[in-house]
Amino acid sequence: MDIKTQLAGADHFLAAIYGSGTTLESLLASLGFDAAQVKSLRDRHLPAIAAGLVEAVRARLTWEDQDTWFQLVSRRFGLDGEPPATKEAIAAALGLDPAYAAHAGAEALDKCRTRTALEEFKKEIRRLALAQLSKSGEKPAKEQVVGKLRRLADLRAAADVARLDYGAKRAEVLRQVQAELDAIDLEFRPVLDAAEENASALEAEIKNDVLLRGESLRAGVYQAIYMKGRVSWDARGIDDYARYHPEVLKFRKEGPPSVALRLSSNPTPDKPG
Fold first, then answer.
1. In 60-85, which positions are buried (b, 16+ CB within 10 angstroms) versus exposed (e)?
2. Which of 59, 174, 179, 231 is the most exposed place for a label (fewest CB within 10 A)?
3. In the prediction, which pLDDT does 273 show?
4. What is the H or E stretch that residue 218 is in?
5. Angle, nearest 10°, between helix axes 68-77 and 3-18?
6. Rounded to whole angstroms, how far apart are CA atoms 40 and 25?
7. Max CA pair span of the chain
8. Where are the domains of the chain?
9. To which H or E segment does residue 222 belong?
10. Tens of pLDDT along 166-222?
């Protein structure tokens, strides 16, 4: 296995699932590592992270000890450290029908492109990077972290000031146009109210007409659907009737009992058994 080939394969795979230009290094830079940490990861730890990523891909594409999907993806991108192979060569090596291999390979890659998979791969890459930095003793100095906390406080404070300025200017603009909005509302409210009143009155007429005709009607984009009334039975009356006419009980079905627990407004004290 060639490490450089595996690293190139990992970058090729990441570009295929996250988008063109995505590499291990670019992902690390987006996962909360500063420039010095990214440089250390790039110079000293990328092979271990790439190997861990390959295992994460293997776990996602293997079930019931069947790793055909993983083999298809691994060979396509060279995740095993061997030069990537063509789809035909991969199918021949795995003893698969070329059409099936192409279809299965595409499905395997789609399984790696789901939102859940993309998030899990990022989490695993971050975990691997943290483990490598920790193992090599590359712990940031306390003063460095404290400095970042102070910078964060400054950035948040600046954002709060900008947010307040934005709110004040937005409110001023709203005040300037509020009079115009009120005038427009005053102009159109009677028209809108009249249109709604007329439409509601006509709807009521249509409903009465359809009830009288007893049939559904359609015109243009509207349809008036006639529905018969829902049939319901008086359960208590039926039970009383069944006492004298038990033959109707064969039409009665009763579900299983159940228990619901609720908080009581007047709890009773426990009594000794």
1. bbeeeeeebbbbbbbbbbbbbbeebb
2. 231
3. 45
4. strand 217-219
5. 110
6. 11
7. 92
8. 3-139, 144-224
9. strand 222-224
10. 999 999 988 889 888 889 999 999 999 999 999 999 999 998 898 888 889 888 888
